[in-house]
Amino acid sequence: MAVGKVMKYLLFFFNFLFFLGGVIILSLATHVSINEADYRITDDLLPAIRLLMFTGAMTLVFGFLGCCGAIKENRCLLALFFKGLLVMFLMLLAVGVLGAVSRTTAAQELVRKHMTQLLPLSEQSKEVQESFQNVERSGFCCGFFVGHIDWGNSTVVPDSCNCTDVSRNCTVLDQREIYSTPCMTYIMTWLDRVSDVLLGIAFAFGIVMLMGMGFSMVLIYQLRNGRKSII
User: Fold this and answer.
1) I need a surface site. Which of 130, 155, 159, 208 has the fewest CB within 10 A?
2) CB under 8 Å to 136, separation ≥6 — which residues?
3) In the chain, what are the domain boundaries?
4) pLDDT, tens digit, 9 for 90 and up, residues 99-114
5) What is the predicted pLDDT for the residue at 96?
């Protein structure tokens, strides 16, 4: 049964890219999981890493099935590829909707839970203090929840809280100006931007999945009817 060569090789090329994407996702997720201490992965983030590994593995498998189905003109493999993409698309859609609805509250509670354990900041290790001071400098903020009080008494508030940008909200503490805005606001804004990027990537990935399902259905139809496409 002959099919249009353009559609056949277009679907093969598409699935080859899909296969490579699965290899990259699985490799990166596995690397992060193995070296979780280096990336400071907490127990709360491990399920997301494992989900990413599962997604990469499924993408790899379905991409391989799609490649074989397209080049061998096998309706069974193409049908498996279509069904697999459909399931992954529905999962992606569900996760995307839930993430868009609850991302701000969930992220804020997660950050609040971990940061509460670090208060007062002045009692933490030098590495933790230096990391947070970098956040204060880049975010033009001081402290986490309630400002400089999160560091402890006024004598231990670091220079990173000094108000170097007069256009920001500042207050006076022991004859020096410091930022009055807590870093929670800055961190939540940054998390929202990251979430927007991730949702954008998920949306683009969903479009690619729909294209793959469309290509596979056209090729299955051509194989079933045993005639060449007009393409």
Assistant:
1) 155
2) 142, 158, 160, 161, 179, 183
3) 5-115+196-225, 120-184
4) 555 555 555 666 667 7
5) 63
